[in-house]
Each structure stands twice: as structure tokens, then as C-alpha cells.
Amino acid sequence: MRTYDFAPLYRATVGFDQIADLMDRVLTTDTNTNSYPPYNIEKTDDDAYRISVAVAGFSDADLNVEVKEKSLVISAKKADEENKSYLHRGIATRAFERRFHLADHVVVTGASHVDGMLHIDLVREVPEALKPRRIEIASQKAIETDVVEAKAVN
User: Fold this and answer.
1) Has residue 42 been placed in a domain?
2) How many DSSP H helices and E strands does the chain contain?
């Protein structure tokens, strides 16, 4: 397996910390990485997304959704079930924590728990200052009419 050292990138650049951190996070293989619980990421509109997580067996009280430091953290912990004896236990209700790194200007607008699925809606809200602007191009005639003729004073 290859490992990459981004230390030279940090030393030679200024202001690109987020890109280097993102590359480091993507390329780091975590031995604790698992596929539980399964999830989908859906693009619902040009600037809207939905994350759907399969959380069968969890109630609303067991689930926790929070945004901290530009990360969406979804976690769940099932209360201990005492006095139950299973002959077969195929429904996994073990505790989990899923993290999603949010891009700039992406905000969580809501969450719902329906039919064993936790849906989290996100929207990218780009500020007006960062949106593209159309610049009018002045014609030569408009420039000539705006010029005031100056008379020589002597």
C-alpha cells in the first residue's frame, strides 16, 4: 500500500490547507472503516442534496444528527435491551457514527425519520458576493456621449 506525505505541500503553499486536508482524509485508509449502516447520497436539485441512511430498529430518540466544524455527524446508540433472549439476531442495531465533510456554503435544512430511513436534506447557499455577475460592455458611441468637451483656458 502507498502512503503519501503532504508535509512538503504544507511548507510550499499558503491558503490551500483545506485541499491538503481533504486529500489526506480521502487517501487515509482507516482500519475501522466499515459499511454499517448503508447510505445513499442523492442530488435532488442543482444546489440540493439528500443523504439517506438505513437505520432500521432505531427510534428517533436513539438517533443524533449534528453539524460541527463543517462536518455532518450522524450517530446512534440503542438502549440496552435486558431480559431478551434471541434465537437468531439478524437485525443489526449496534451503535454507529457516520461523518460527512460538508463543502463551503452547504447547510443542513432538515432531517426526517420515515420507515426505517433517516433522510437529511442539505442545500448549497452561495452568497451573492460569490455568484457570477454579468458585466455590461459599453459601446464606443456611449463612451463618446459621456465625454465632456474641454475648452482651453488661457
Assistant:
1) yes
2) 3, 7
